Each structure stands twice: as structure tokens, then as C-alpha cells.
């Protein structure tokens, strides 16, 4: 999915209306419906029984989208109030029609057309829980907000201390094409953008304002859209494409139809990592998950992933070796996917196991954590024969730096370039973890994910991701599709868990437990 400029999106809208017979009001209704779906999902996740929704709308089409969302949410039983920054007489075109339909539905409205009106609102006027919807400014706005709009944005900032914030198309005060935040700017928990991610979303400066990003398909015909650009390096990972990748199950299928993967991991003091990876794999829908772990990891496997088949492997010096692995479990090449690395340590035995896996007939191989650390400085060891699938690697910035022979700071300074270079040198599909996780392929493609939150910066979340990815690959997805779906799904699970418990309290097992709800989120927000 390509990033588009505001001019490209507006031209796409115009062509859809002029050449394809789609009315502007129909597009507005679809956009508003997408916002309403996300608001309802978010409210449900947060468990807010009072169901309050406050919408803040301006005079443009973003306001019109808010009017539609308000009408639909009211019909679904939410306690809705919409506050306007301009008199209804100032509305034009489709926004005016959407306002009339909303009024006829009985939505409670309030006009606050002067900056001082917003400034006069006291603490009692701030929502307690629920969701606030930002429908003030769209892609057509330029420069820093001022006057009544700036005052309304500052009110949303205050409201965000108690309520979740959903931005329509982009947070008000954020430049659509550059991603530079103005003062003031809305900081959203979720941004629902339409048709395509905006060009500015690729700018890391924008991410603090965007929160969790969802792209809503609103029925703009692809034929009326901009031509694909061969020069554009970065692509976006979005729900409309990913929803079609979720494996569908036939009524007569059985566990053998959904792949059997092997997790190899664990060492003295790192016994939980393979269990977390197995949890991710199991919740991906994989039919069978086995784990080869040292004996002191068996208790963690039984507690965290009882559905996995755990094989206690004799350890030497606190870790696994090729000889003890061969004694404890059948040949790795007999599994559909092998995931190696979680909690293995960097002992000599780990390096020997990884070397044997890379030179064996294992069809599909995912390497994470210490499996990458033992390859530091030599990406060529990841090269595999053409008849085998490329390796998938899931480094964090420090591991990527060690593979490239550079520093973590250098990787973070240009993450896109680092991911591309690592994929080129290693001939692997690379998942570069961190804020704005990237998926890169050896042919130069790079995809950006904008789900997830800082609460995921805690031990074990990467193990869950590696297991989720391996499980999807075991079910027949391509390595690129498995990686793209895994990072979106994993980030969404982290967001759902954080919306329930807060970021500071987020743990890897809570993230894994949220993977089922995250799959439902994906299918529902994708429409």
C-alpha cells in the first residue's frame, strides 16, 4: 500500500466522483462508517459501560465524516454529543447534507464558535472515559491552527488525559505531506485514515501524534487512483490488504492442515523465551507446535503454552548443542517451519546448531535473538540455496547493528536504509523491530507498520512476534505476507492490551493473550 500526498488523494476523490459515478456523499458515508466502527471497537476494548462519545467537528469534509459517525454511533446506542467550531450555516455541499441527516437523527449538538467558548469549558466539561473524535482539520489545511480551531485542539489535548482520542483522516495540526506537527496538534490513540496512508505518516516525527493507524477502504476504484510508483521505496502495512491474508478454515479440516512448527530455544536463566514464542505460534492458528528446550524450560512451557508439545533436551553447560538436540527431538527438517533463537544464549552450542540449520534441508527457517547474535558480522552465512525459501530474521536494532558491523545509533538514524541493506546482504526477509517496525526483502522492498506502542518495550514481546510469524508461515503464507501480517497483528495486540491495562503494566504474556481479539479487530476495522 503506497503513501500518497494530499493532492493525489484529492485527485483520486475527484476522478471517482466525476468518472465512476460515485457521489461525494456516498464516500463521506463510508468514511464516517469506518470511523464509527473503530470508535465502537475501541470503546469495547476499554470496557467503558457508559459508552460516551464526544465528537469535535469543523467546517470541512472531516466535519462531515464526524457527522456521519455521530449519527451511526447514536443509532448503536452510544451517548453521543457533537461540538461544532462553526455555525451550521457555514457548511457547504456534502458536509451540509451530512449535518442535516445527523440533526434529523437527534444527535445532541453544541456550538462553540469562539476560542473563548472552548477556553471557558472547565474540568466538569471534560469526558470521563469514553472516546473523543477529532474531526477538525483534514488534508487541505495548511499552517499552524489558530483561533477557535486551536482552542478546540487544546481542549482535545486536555480531554485525552481521561478519554481515548480517535483522529479522522489525520490528527488536526499534523501536516499531511511532511508529517511535521504544528503547535497545537492532536495526539491520537488511533488515526483512521481513508483510502491510503498520507505521505507524512512515514515521518517518525508524526508517530507520536498518529498512534495506532488504520487505513479504511472507502470504495475508491483502483482504476481512478494514482499509478504505482516504481521509485517509491517505502510501502505501508494496512488492514485492507491484510484481512485477506488471515487463513480461512474449512469445516472438514484438521490440525495437520495448518502446519507443524518447531521452536528451538531456552538456556539456563532464559527459560521463558521459547514458551512465549510457542504462545505466539499457537495463537497464530498453527495446527501443531513442538518445542525443543532444556529441562529447566519445561515448567515454563507447561505454564504458558500447555498446548505445545515440549521435549526436554539434555543441556551441556546450560545450553543446547547439536548432539543433545538430536537426542531429544526428531530431525528439524521434518517440520514445516523451524524457529530458532529465543533464549538460546550465545554459547558455542548455539552457533553450532544455527550453522547446521542453515546448511540443512529445513524448508522454512526463522531466526531470532541469539540465533542472530552468533552470526554477528557475517550476513553471508544466511545465504541459502535457490530451491529453499529465504531465511526470515527478526532483529531488534542492536542485533541488526551486530549483523551489519555497525552501531545501534547508525541503524536507528536511518532505519529504512539499514533494513534494506541487511536484507540485501543477508538475502533474508528482515523484520527490523522497534517503533515503526519494518519488513524488508532482498529485492529492495520495505514495508512500514504503524501499530504498537511503547508498552511493548519489555522482555518477551519479540519472542511472541517470532512465534506468530513462524506460525503464519507454517500455514502457507509467503514469507513476506507472514511477516507483514505478523507485525500488524502483534502491534495491534499490544495496543489492545495497553488500552486495557496501560502501557507501563503491559507484559508479553498479556500481549499474547490479546492476539485473538487483535484478529477480530483486523477483520472488523477492515470492513
What can you see in these coordinates?
- The chain has 527 residues and is α/β, with parallel strands linked by helices.
- The protein folds into 2 domains: 6-230, YjeF N-terminal domain (Rossmann fold, 3-Layer(aba) Sandwich), CATH 3.40.50; 255-525, Ribokinase (UDP-N-acetylmuramoyl-L-alanine:D-glutamate ligase).
- It is 41% helix and 15% strand.
- The chain has 20 helices and 17 strands.
- The protein has helices at 6-20, 24-46, 61-75, 93-105, 115-119, 147-159, 204-210, 239-242, 273-283, 298-304, 322-328, 348-358, 370-373, 397-404, 408-413, 415-426, 461-474, 479-501, 508-513, 515-525, and strands at 52-57, 79-84, 108-111, 131-135, 164-168, 190-194, 212-216, 234-236, 260-264, 288-294, 309-313, 337-340, 365-368, 392-394, 429-432, 438-440, 446-448.
- Strands 8-17-16-15-14-13-12-9-10-11 form a 10-stranded mixed β-sheet, sandwiched between helices. Strands 3-2-1-4-5-6-7 form a 7-stranded parallel β-sheet, with helices on both faces.
- Strand 1 (52-57), helix 3 (61-75) and strand 2 form a beta-alpha-beta unit.
- Helix 2 (24-46) crosses helix 4, helix 3 runs parallel beside helix 4 and helix 18 (479-501) packs across helix 20.
- The longest helix is centred in the first third of the chain and has 23 residues, at 24-46.
- The chain is elongated, with a radius of gyration of 25 Å.
- The model has no long low-confidence stretch (mean pLDDT 95).
Amino acid at each position: 500500500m503506497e503513501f500518497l500526498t494530499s493532492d493525489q488523494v484529492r485527485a483520486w476523490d475527484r476522478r471517482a466522483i466525476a468518472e465512476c459515478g460515485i457521489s461525494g456523499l456516498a464516500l463521506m458515508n463510508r468514511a464516517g462508517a469506518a470511523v464509527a466502527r473503530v470508535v465502537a471497537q475501541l470503546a469495547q476494548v476499554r470496557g467503558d459501560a457508559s459508552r460516551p462519545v464526544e465528537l469535535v467537528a469543523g467546517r470541512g469534509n472531516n466535519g462531515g465524516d464526524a457527522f456521519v459517525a455521530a449519527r451511526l454511533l447514536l443509532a448503536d446506542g452510544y451517548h453521543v454529543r457533537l461540538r461544532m467550531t462553526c455555525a451550521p450555516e457555514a457548511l457547504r455541499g456534502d458536509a451540509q447534507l451530512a449535518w442535516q441527516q445527523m440533526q434529523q437523527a437527534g444527535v445532541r449538538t453544541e456550538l462553540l464558535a469562539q476560542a473563548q467558548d472552548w477556553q471557558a469549558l472547565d474540568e466538569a466539561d471534560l469526558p470521563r472515559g469514553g472516546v473523543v473524535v477529532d474531526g477538525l482539520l483534514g488534508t487541505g489545511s495548511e499552517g499552524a491552527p489558530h483561533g477557535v480551531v486551536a482552542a478546540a485542539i487544546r481542549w482535545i489535548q486536555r480531554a485525552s488525559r481521561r478519554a481515548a482520542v480517535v483522529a479522522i483522516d489525520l490528527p488536526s495540526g499534523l501536516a499531511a505531506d511532511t508529517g511535521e506537527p504544528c503547535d497545537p496538534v492532536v495526539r491520537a490513540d488511533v488515526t483512521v485514515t481513508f483510502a491510503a496512508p498520507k505521505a507524512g505518516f512515514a515521518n517518525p516525527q508524526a508517530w507520536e501524534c498518529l498512534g495506532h493507524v488504520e487505513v479504511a477502504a472507502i470504495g475508491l476504484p483502483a482504476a481512478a487512483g494514482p499509478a504505482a510508483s516504481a521509485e517509491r521505496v517505502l510501502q505501508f502495512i494496512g488492514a485492507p490488504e491484510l484481512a485477506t491474508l488471515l487463513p480461512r478454515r474449512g469445516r472438514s479440516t484438521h490440525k495437520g492442515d495448518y502446519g507443524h512448527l518447531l521452536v528451538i530455544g531456552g538456556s539456563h536463566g532464559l527459560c521463558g523465551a521459547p514458551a512465549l514464542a510457542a504462545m505466539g505460534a499457537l495463537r497464530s492458528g498453527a495446527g501443531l507446535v513442538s518445542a525443543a528446550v532444556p529441562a529447566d524450560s519445561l515448567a515454563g512451557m507447561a505454564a504458558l503454552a500447555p498446548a505445545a508439545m515440549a521435549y526436554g533436551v539434555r543441556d551441556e553447560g546450560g545450553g543446547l548443542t547439536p548432539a543433545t538436540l538430536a537426542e531429544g527431538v526428531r530431525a528439524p527438517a521434518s517440520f514445516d517451519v523451524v524457529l530458532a533463537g529465543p533464549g538460546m544464549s550465545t554459547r558455542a552450542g548455539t552457533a553450532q546448531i544455527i550453522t547446521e540449520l542453515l546448511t540443512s534441508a529445513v524448508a522454512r527457517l526463522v531466526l531470532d535473538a541469539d540465533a542472530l547474535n552468533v552470526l554477528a558480522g557475517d550476513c553471508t552465512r544466511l545465504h541459502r540455496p535457490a530451491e529453499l525459501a529465504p531465511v526470515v530474521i527478526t532483529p531488534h536494532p542492536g542485533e541488526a547493528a551486530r549483523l551489519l558491523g555497525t552501531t545501534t545509533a547508525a541503524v536507528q538514524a536511518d532505519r529504512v536504509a539499514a533494513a534494506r541493506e541487511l536484507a540485501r546482504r543477508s538475502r533474508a526477509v528482515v523484520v527490523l523491530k522497534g517503533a515503526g517496525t519494518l519488513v524488508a526483502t532482498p529485492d529492495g522492498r520495505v514495508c512500514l507498520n504503524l501499530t504498537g506502542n511503547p508498552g511493548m518495550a519489555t522482555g518477551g514481546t519479540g519472542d511472541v512476534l517470532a512465534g506468530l510469524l513462524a506460525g503464519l508461515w507454517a500455514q502457507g503464507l509467503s514469507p513476506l505476507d507472514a511477516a507483514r501480517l505478523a507485525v500488524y497483528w502483534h502491534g495491534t495486540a499490544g495496543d489492545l492490551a495497553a488500552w486495557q491495562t496501560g502501557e507501563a503494566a503491559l507484559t508479553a504474556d498479556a500481549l499474547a493473550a490479546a492476539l485473538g481479539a487483535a484478529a477480530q479487530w483486523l477483520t472488523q476495522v477492515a470492513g
